[in-house]
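Batch queue: ligand-bound targets. Current item pairs a single chain with flavin-adenine dinucleotide. No template structures supplied; prediction is de novo from sequence plus SMILES. Inputs echoed for audit trail.
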Amino acid sequence: MRVAVIGAGFGGLATAIRLLAAGHRVTVVEGRPEPGGRASRICDRGWQFDTGPSLITMPELLDDLFAAAGTSSAQELKLRRLDPFYRISWEGEEETLLFNGDRAAMIEQITEFSLADAGRYDDFMASSRSIHEEAVLVAGNRPFLELGGFLSLVPKMAQLGALRSVDGFVGRFFREPHVRQAFAFHPLFIGGNPFRVPAVYAALAYLQVAGGVWYSEGGMWSLVEALARIVKGGGELRCGDPVTEIVRRNGSAVGVKTASGDFVEAEVVVSNADVVTTRRNLLGLNGRVPRLTMSCFLLYLGVRRKFSQLQHHTLLVGNDYRGFIHDVTVARRLPASLSLYVHAPSRTEPAMAPEGGESISVLLPVPNLGSGFAWSEAEEPLRERVLDMLESPNGLALTGLRDSIEVEHRWTPHTFRDELASPQGNAFGPEPLLWQSAYFRQPNRDRDVPGVYYAGAGTHPGAGIPGVLMTASVTAELIRRDALDGRL
Ligand SMILES: Cc1cc2nc3c(=O)[nH]c(=O)nc-3n(C[C@H](O)[C@H](O)[C@H](O)COP(=O)(O)OP(=O)(O)OC[C@H]3O[C@@H](n4cnc5c(N)ncnc54)[C@H](O)[C@@H]3O)c2cc1C
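Prediction returned. Tokens below.
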């Protein structure tokens, strides 16, 4: 079959690779000048920044994808396991927690905060492993087209404690607030509020410990390049020409039309673009807009000196963490207290910055634009607050950071809205709430238009590179089955 894939994010590239491997003729049409989507790169005077994702987890999913293309992770990438994965610091406090996958080291770290909590580490790992193996992997590898399929999983999830919030689940094991935060913050990586997303996402901490956190030499961009290379090898990758319409004949998709006026004829259209935008703008359908995730303010700073106190990944938790999450995701207003994530790949790979410098990306979750949040007024004062916090002895004590900035770039809610077609400038897709997961998420096959499928953060199982790679295999398998059943 001829397949048109809209978008060359990880979801689109991975689906294209799987469909090429199945023998289809695939054309990927990307609106931006380069592939990668959220995982783009900025290069400026020797500094290189990954714009979005920075942590590689579940590398076995990459192994599986490369194997489908007849190659391997070892051939395509230079992966390094990080140790520690990251350092967690708390505003105004001396103590830090170095998160890694070593049991003895983790127990030692937790003991610094609470002996009792350290004694419950093994129980936490065992319970979150059960969630990972019995809920996440079971549910994540199949489509949820019928309500019955979802309902049949509910008793098991209830038994595993996976239906309560991540924070509530983690609080059963870790009572000391710092330890609890350190094991419960992970849903933030996919836009989830740890106080309200279900504990299926508690498995994120487990899978980091079990499978490691990895870095690919050349940054996340090296992974995009590797996937794009494979797509170009067997199919076509067109960039810089956004799709404006999914064309239908007798109700079924027959291809896509692009801004330049091209028509790409196809029996199957897979959209990796935002699911709300695809249905509303490319298919002209009305429908309920799900609750969308927060946005992010990203500062990419090329500095001309070293900051050896930074780890490759550093989290700085503000003094009102719960209030911060509430402000950003529930009240949707400018947060009174800030919590930051800092990525400094030049700590691991000095070539990501000119000699003697660092490449530093700072991520601050901010409200999306859905509540009428006036970003333009917020931006400059927020930049100053972020830099103050990084420089402050109560923050990360990066003394002299401001003065050493040589290049600066930003991604804001406007970037997510205007360049990545996220309707509310949301940085991720629909929020991973229970009632927006599995059957209740945009299914991998469109319910209204035959021939239209989805891959990427907005469909099942969801956001994050592992989730998105799983959407690609679920969707490719669904297309295979639909073709055999005569549906296509
Ligand atoms: C700041 C940030 C940090 C993150 N950190 C991590 C992390 O450390 N680890 C992790 O695993 N995950 C992380 N994530 C999540 C992860 O990056 C995303 O879930 C994933 O990259 C999404 O991939 P995607 O293919 O679904 O979408 P996208 O990357 O958004 O790709 C969609 C593509 O579709 C294109 N497109 C849209 N409309 C059209 C159109 N009309 N025509 C043609 N093309 C179109 C877009 O230009 C884009 O290239 C992070 C996300 C963000 C925002």
